Amino acid sequence: MKDWPLWEVFIRSRHGLAHKHVGSLHASDAAMALANARDVYTRRGEGMSIWVVRSTDITASAPGDKAILFDPSEDKVYRHPTFYEIPDEVDNL
Amino acid sequence: MHIQPGHTGGEPTRSAEALAELEQAFQEKIDAEIKIEPKDWMPEAYRQSLVRQISQHAHSEIVGMLPEGNWLTRAPSLRRKLILLAKVQDEAGHGLYLYSAAETLGASREALIEALHAGKAKYSSIFNYPTLTWADVGAIGWLVDGAALINQIPLCRCSYGPYARAMRRICKEESFHQRQGYEIMLVLCRGTAAQKRMAQDALERWWWPSLMMFGPPDAESSHTQQSMRWKIKRHTNDALRQKFVDQSVPQADYLGLTPPDPELKWNEQIGHYDFGAIDWGEFWRVLKGDGPCNRERIEARRRAYDEGRWVREAALAFGAKQARRAHGAE
Amino acid sequence: MNQRQALYEYLLRLGDNALILGQRLTEWIGHAPALEEELGSANVALDLIGQARGWLAYAGTVEGAGRDEDTLALQRDVLDFRNALLLEQPNGHYGDTIARQYLFDAFHYPLLEALRGCADQHIAAIAAKSYKEAGYHRRRSAEWMVRLGDGTAESHAKLQRSVDTLWPYTGELFTPDEVDRTLQSLGVAADLTAVYQTWDEDVARTLKTATLQRPQAGWMQSGGKQGRHSEQLGYILAQMQFLPRAYPDARW
Ligand SMILES: [Fe+2]
Ligand SMILES: [Fe+2]
After folding, report:
1. Fewer CB near the terminus (10 Å): N or C of chain C?
2. Looking at the domain assignment, is residue A90 inside a domain?
3. At A27, which CATH number?
């Protein structure tokens, strides 16, 4: 017999942040995955909303692509507010 | 996350040079405290060592539900019943988080569990001792969860990301386990003579097995050195054991209980407690299967798994039907 | 029967139902068919035992004899328990446990929902908290009914038998007696006819989705609500009450 399929669980906490990956679990169908996510990952009042996704349905970037994907953004300093010189006298910027 | 296993053994053949280079880069990452993630390259021995350690840990959580679990129906008050139930439930959760972490390394939960049932996998020997009285529930929370916590806190910084994250979650949940156990002991020690006797007896039976939970002495521990280099492990068995003794003796004093070790004595010079020799013969004997409850524990797990098979199969069959129906309806 | 006596009896029924089912569920811990189910069924048991504490504590107050939730739970004998017979039935296999749970949840949820509007403020407050838990329980057990009923041929046959075996214990839940009538006239007890209607529709829908047959109407067992139990309850109490009875002067 096979294991029940694996699901990834994402929870949005009370603080209004985005859904965050909290872990995984096994379940035979989507309703069970939701129930199990509730029972496993929100036992201490952690959650306001749950997403469950079949692990096999997630496409991830490859570690080998780290250089071409993420390094190019490192020298785009002009995207950061501290790049700009504004005289101290000017407020609210 | 389990997007794909790190690698599944289908490693392309690499030249010795290329491999050495990868290994060096890997060790540099570890030394720089950069976490290793499932899809990153890792030496096969690192992967195997992690699967072994994480699955042993997961098995311990699950088997560990049994000795305390058998007191759920007999807890002496409704409040105690709820606390114990929440605690044993946490241990099930810990097993689940840990199996999940092992699964990111390409192991399947089913295969790991079957290895346990076949007697091919280890779990913490402490759970092969019986829980004879209610005081054992207190002693387990106080000493066993206490020892586990000392072992586990450094694992929150383990080099393997999914294991470290599972451990952080576990340690957060563990924080009430030891306290509820100590509270049980406290109430017993302030109670009737019969209750105090129960508490002393439980301490006597759980003391030495708790010291053994840190594993064999450093000189005899086969995995310690490599594990430390890979930052899977961060302290030696003996150092953690000493820490446990140092913290537990004053706690026993406060309860008015006496650990069963005549050589236990504060050593002013080194600022630690000296303690007597551990019976490693007993440790190895229990580990090899001859503890008081080894057979019962594995048998209970195997029975639950076998008797639950039709349930798991039914759910799987229903899931497949449902998927087919959804597909047909499109 | 005066109002206070009726209220005490009614609270024992609510409390003992939750307590005995919760106690039964704790027998599964460590032995469930899947790791995820360990956590799920423990949550249900935690809810139920938590509810039992609330009902029994209030029962003790109403009784006015100085008994608290623990004294009531752990010092009464079989004759003084008021849970329905359904809840003391053995766990059996997982299908038996699921069927027992669902048949109860489908009753428990509309009952608590109705009690939210109870004229007694304490009852209304406990019900307002508990009915949400019961709503989750009912959804969870109904989903399992469907999985097992519409799963494999083996699970279908097993669950059908579970439903058939437990069916005769469902009648008692909806049969009003003097306690129900006394309190209903005061706006305290729920109207069991209305609760039955919700139960009946829910069960019909779930059995149909689960591809299960509704058992033929037949003889219904009863007595639990009045303290005449099956042989099962004595064993449950023997375990559950052992410590406080063995050490009568101890506190825990
Ligand atoms: Fe744990
Ligand atoms: Fe624990």
Report:
1. N
2. no
3. 3.10.20.520
